[in-house]
User: Which sequence fits this backbone?
């Protein structure tokens, strides 16, 4: 028997009544009723209520104990009276009468309360993260994270995958985000890079003859923080498979996600066969390649309507001639909504820095003709309203919100407007998960400033079409076997079928401005390996942090990460990054320069 406990703080029940027990944990709460003292003792597993009356020899000492002191309690399990039973905890039928106790760990004054999950300043929470992690909600999130990773491992093994580890010290990559660099002591003037992802290594694993690989992989990117992205490091479920096509990858991931989300959440999965949405269609319908399919609202292009003579909305007609697009969102049966509903959305749009959202509702006059009601309704004739209804599937009683802007801006405007309007109308199914695949990404994109053609996504992706007879004369028209998996508007991962043909890789890199020597230099290991018989292969890497965010119903990735950095990529608890000694710098043949003010 352990000298610290016979039971955890979630185990005791009516079967243990009148038994002597040992418990150890933190003093979570105290309630002093004068003649009777209640102490909620907490450990990793739960809470047990302990009591001592004024005749108890330990009463005065127990009264003085600070919250979060670690103690060991010896006592007798008693049955609670009917009116004091607590159904919110597993030990709510009993309490422990304290016979003796011992202080195992004293505490200083707390910088933040542990018994409450109230919001607290980020700086305090991260500096004292070890206290923050004791709090119920975030403690449970981290345990959930552990269980999710364990579940994923078992599911991947069931599907025939082997887990392998790839190097942490590797070479710098010219693509993607900034690398974290590590100077080499034994190779002065040269640097390793921490991997942004095990991309090249997992492809090399396939070339090495292994068929199905996975890893819970740490990844390092010198990026700015966002709500759904940690600065510095994150973890992903890295997957690669040989002799597969795009649908083979989808099948594996869909099975995993359905089993995973059904196991850890009561929310409904809206589509067990995830919809496949081409990139261009996603942008046109939802204004984004990360659509939230819980929201039924769609975006329509109604630009052609404004070339009609019977449409008199001159501002939009003028902008249309200068190259702008006009997009619309239809809201069902909202003609009788108060004016404040429409004005609030228009005001919100202006607060975003846009010109606002024009709107009107479709109604009928006494003679049965269609009319537009609202600030701009008068500019549309009966016939033009019919055309709008035809394009947008709108009906009498529906309302139309419109925006006119350049193509580079209109998608963001309408995507955010779709989310805003859907939220205000409460039409987003919050009790569900809506997964989808975004497919058919273009391989290349044009830099608007330099006019240079760049890779738009992953430079190692296989182009669609016959690889032996590919038309490269119009590179911006080329699509790749690239795909993103999205859930509730959150991108979980990008993936692709890989380009395993060196000759084709040289051709594609040349379009992006890399000559053969540059490719050989930057990707020597990959190109060399692919030259010795590489199988067709592909994969994906869903983010562990984002998966747990969804399951825990959290909005910020910090809430599901054990020891996150702050917005400036600083670890306030361990004081990292920090300066190093001159001796260390000398060993690495480095000097530091003061930043010019």
Assistant:
């Amino acid at each position: 028997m352990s000298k610290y406990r016979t039971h955890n703080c979630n185990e005791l029940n009516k079967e243990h009544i009148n038994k002597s027990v040992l418990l150890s944990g933190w003093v979570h709460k105290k309630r002093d009723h004068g003649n009777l003292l209640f102490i909620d003792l907490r450990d990793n597993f739960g809470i047990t209520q302990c009591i001592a009356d004024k005749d108890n020899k330990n009463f005065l000492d127990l009264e003085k104990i600070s919250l979060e002191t670690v103690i060991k309690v010896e006592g007798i399990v008693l049955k609670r009276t009917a009116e004091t039973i607590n159904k919110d905890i597993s030990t709510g039928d009993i309490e422990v009468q304290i016979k003796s106790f011992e202080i195992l760990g004293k505490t200083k004054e707390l910088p933040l309360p542990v018994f409450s999950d109230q919001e607290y300043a980020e700086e305090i929470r991260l500096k004292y993260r070890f206290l923050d992690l004791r709090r119920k909600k975030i403690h449970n999130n981290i345990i959930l994270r552990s269980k999710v990773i364990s579940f994923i491992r078992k599911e991947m093994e069931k599907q025939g995958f082997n887990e392998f580890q790839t190097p942490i010290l590797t070479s710098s990559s010219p693509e993607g985000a900034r690398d974290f660099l590590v100077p080499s002591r034994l190779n002065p003037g040269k640097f390793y890079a921490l991997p942004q992802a095990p991309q090249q290594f997992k492809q090399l694993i396939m070339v090495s003859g292994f068929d199905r690989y996975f890893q819970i992989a740490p990844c390092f990117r010198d990026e700015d923080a966002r709500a759904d992205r940690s600065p510095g490091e994150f973890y992903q479920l890295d997957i690669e498979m040989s002799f597969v096509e795009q649908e083979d990858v989808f099948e594996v991931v869909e099975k995993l996600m359905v089993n995973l989300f059904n196991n850890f959440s009561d929310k409904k999965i809206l589509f067990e066969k995830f919809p496949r949405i081409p990139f261009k269609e996603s942008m046109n319908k939802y204004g984004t390649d990360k659509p939230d399919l819980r929201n039924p609202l769609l975006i329509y292009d109604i630009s052609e309507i404004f070339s009609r003579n019977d449409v008199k909305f001159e501002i939009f007609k003028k902008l249309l001639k200068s190259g702008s697009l006009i997009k619309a969102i239809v809201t069902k049966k909202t003609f009788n909504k108060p004016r404040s509903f429409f004005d609030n959305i228009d005001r919100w749009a202006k607060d975003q820095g846009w010109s606002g959202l024009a709107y009107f509702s479709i109604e009928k006059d006494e003679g049965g003709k269609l009319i537009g009601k609202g600030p701009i309704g008068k500019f549309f004739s009966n016939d033009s309203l019919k055309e709008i209804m035809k394009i947008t599937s709108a009906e009498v009683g529906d309302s139309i919100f419109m925006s006119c802007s350049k193509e580079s801006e209109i998608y963001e405007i309408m995507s955010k407007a779709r989310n805003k309007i859907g939220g205000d109308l409460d039409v987003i199914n919050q009790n569900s998960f809506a997964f989808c695949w975004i497919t058919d990404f273009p391989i290349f994109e044009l830099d608007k400033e330099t006019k240079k053609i760049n890779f738009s996504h992953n430079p190692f992706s296989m182009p669609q079409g016959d690889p032996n007879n590919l038309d490269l004369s119009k590179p911006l028209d080329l699509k790749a076997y690239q795909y993103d998996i999205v859930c509730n508007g959150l991108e979980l991962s990008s993936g692709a079928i890989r380009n395993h043909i060196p000759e084709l890789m040289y051709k594609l890199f040349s379009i992006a401005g890399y000559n053969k020597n540059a490719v050989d230099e930057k990707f020597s290991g990959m190109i060399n390996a692919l030259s010795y018989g590489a199988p067709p292969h592909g994969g994906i890497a869903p983010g562990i942090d984002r998966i747990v965010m969804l399951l825990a119903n959290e909005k910020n990735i910090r809430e599901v990460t054990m020891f996150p950095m702050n917005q400036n990529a600083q670890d306030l608890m361990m004081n990292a990054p920090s300066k190093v000694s001159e001796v260390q710098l000398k060993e690495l043949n480095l000097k530091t320069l003061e930043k010019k003010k």
Observations:
- The first helix runs from residue 59 to 64.
- Residues 107 and 323 are 67 Å apart (CA to CA).
- The mean pLDDT is 94.
- The two ends are 63 Å apart (CA to CA).
